[in-house]
């Protein structure tokens, strides 16, 4: 991976951990918070999307629709599962579990569907990811009831599955389909707003209440979440997805630190150690 792609991934990791921290602060926001952040992102990034259209034009309609509709559905499922996970589990368990299993599942998808062969280094990296996940999610100082711990782990795994699916598909969209990363991501945000519009309309009071109480967090997540993924999409144009997808998991350690330091979540030693093992694994996956 070249230095430019690596820099993009590192900055994306910081932005990603940041928006997850703010999302955790409104864990009770649920689907209303997801819709509000998508709507906010659509407004904030509209000028840049318009600039791309003015300079490069629109892609063929059928190509754009195919890329955006599939991606929007996967991302929407990801956001809902992640937000639900934060409502029932600790950030420093749910987030590293989701981010740690995502690259491993993406590797399996690439082997099964794209006929890729990761080799010994790739397999070793995958095993380290699994080991780190087990360290992070093993009992320890989680003060929630056991049912809550298991629910957080389950939602973390489901979120990881969505990460794997949207990573592979989005890499395909900005490379094989040649869609502009910025316009592609903005259209994704718009699609999520439209898909969730019936929910928002039926729960207008709930939407208004979440906005009134958490507007600062809504704006920050609406700004940081697309920024983090935009940087990854541009990196995927400069380096193979098999390198970019694992490298972006550097955000795992940042999330574990934020969960312990700012949210006062328990057992920092075990969780940080497990996150370090996950990072070691994804580094091996990146060089496989």
Automatic annotation (TrEMBL):
Domain EamA: where?
Answer: 5-137, 151-285
Subcellular location, principal: membrane
Q: Name one GO biological process term.
A: lipopolysaccharide biosynthetic process
Q: Cell membrane as a keyword?
A: yes
Compartments in which it is found: Cell membrane
State the source organism's domain of life: Bacteria
Please give, as recorded in its UniProt entry, the membrane topology of this protein: Multi-pass membrane protein
Listed A to Z, the keywords are: Cell inner membrane, Cell membrane, Lipid A biosynthesis, Lipid biosynthesis, Lipid metabolism, Lipopolysaccharide biosynthesis, Membrane, Transmembrane, Transmembrane helix, Transport
Q: Which family does it belong to?
A: Belongs to the EamA transporter family.
Q: State the name under which the record lists this protein.
A: EamA-like transporter family protein
Organism encoding this protein? Actinopolyspora xinjiangensis
């Amino acid at each position: 991976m070249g230095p430019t792609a690596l820099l993009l991934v590192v900055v994306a990791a910081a932005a990603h951990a940041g928006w997850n921290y703010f999302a955790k602060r409104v864990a009770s926001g649920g689907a209303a918070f997801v819709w509000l952040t998508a709507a906010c992102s659509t407004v904030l990034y509209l000028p840049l999307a318009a600039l791309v259209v003015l300079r490069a034009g629109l892609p063929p309609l059928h190509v754009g629709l195919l890329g955006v509709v599939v991606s929007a559905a996967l991302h929407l499922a990801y956001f809902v599962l992640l937000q639900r996970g934060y409502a029932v589990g600790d950030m420093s368990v749910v987030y590293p579990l989701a981010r740690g299993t995502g690259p491993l599942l993406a590797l399996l998808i690439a082997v099964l569907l794209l006929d890729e062969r990761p080799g010994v280094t790739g397999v070793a990296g995958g095993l380290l990811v699994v080991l780190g996940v087990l360290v992070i999610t093993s009992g320890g100082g989680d003060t929630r009831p056991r049912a809550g711990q298991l629910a957080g782990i389950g939602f973390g795994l489901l979120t990881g599955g969505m990460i794997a699916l949207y990573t592979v598909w989005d890499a395909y969209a900005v490379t094989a389909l040649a869609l502009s990363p910025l316009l592609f991501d903005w259209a994704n945000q718009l699609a999520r707003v439209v898909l969730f519009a019936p929910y928002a309309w039926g729960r207008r009071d709930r939407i208004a209440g979440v906005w009134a109480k958490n507007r600062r967090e809504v704006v920050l997540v609406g700004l940081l979440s697309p920024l983090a993924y935009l940087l990854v999409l541009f990196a995927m144009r400069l380096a193979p997805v098999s390198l970019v997808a694992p490298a972006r998991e550097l955000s795992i350690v940042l999330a574990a630190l934020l969960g312990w330091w700012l949210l006062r979540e328990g057992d920092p030693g075990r969780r940080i150690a497990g996150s370090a093992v996950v990072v070691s694994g994804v580094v091996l996956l990146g060089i496989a």
